[in-house]
């Protein structure tokens, strides 16, 4: 019950406009390191290989909100891909950055894509073996909006899912010699 109330309070904070982005320049690896332990533990419990790419990418955004978004999307991907693989990748795209979370899980039928981000909607509860409240993706959508973006999804049954957000103007130009690619790998 506490998780449900926490989720509802979080939704209401976004809906009321209380949450604002505090943008700074940071490496994507800062977000990866922040979420590595909790997501790695969840992945290990479900025998999911968790792979991180693009840690050396410099970003201008809100690191706490981006970490919360990564956590929600990756948690969802891990839950829908038992004994599978989840890729968390950050790539430069022009003057922006694309964050992608890919899984090779059960996928979601295209007829259901319009409902994915609705509150209290769950598609993969039986796969996960746990019951949630269907608030995670609704909150993720609101986080993306605060970051000035929206979440896109590509998914089909039996082929997994890819969720992404494009953060326009978020790429920070790096000096030659700075790392532009890093890989973190968590194998269960």
Write down the overall geometry. globular
Helix and strand composition category: alpha+beta
For the record, the CATH class is: Alpha Beta
Q: Which fold name fills CATH's third level, the topology?
A: Heat Shock Protein 90
Intertermini distance = 30 Å
| Overall pLDDT | 79
Order of helices and strands: HEHEEHEEHHEEE
Number of strands: 8
What's the main sheet like? 6 strands, mixed
**CATH architecture verdict:** 2-Layer Sandwich
- Total of domains: 1
Could you give the order of strands across the largest sheet?
6-7-5-4-2-8
| Helix share bin | 25-40%
CATH-wise, what's the superfamily?
Histidine kinase-like ATPase, C-terminal domain
Low-pLDDT residue spans: 175-188
Assess the beta-strand content as a share of residues.
25-35%
Q: Report the radius of gyration as a whole number of Å.
A: 16 Å
Number of helices: 5
Description:
By secondary structure, the chain is of the alpha+beta class. The protein has one domain: Heat Shock Protein 90, CATH 3.30.565. 35% of the residues lie in helices and 26% in strands. It has helices at residues 2-15, 28-45, 63-80, 125-128, 136-146, and strands spanning 24-27, 49-53, 58-61, 85-93, 96-103, 151-156, 160-167, 183-186. α2 (28-45) runs parallel beside α3. The longest helix is centred in the first third of the chain and has 18 residues, at 28-45. The two termini are 30 Å apart.
Question: Care to give the gist of this entry?
Answer:
The protein is an alpha+beta fold and 188 residues long.
What key phrases describe this protein's structure?
single chain; alpha+beta; Heat Shock Protein 90; six-stranded mixed beta sheet; two-stranded antiparallel ribbon; 5 helices; 8 strands
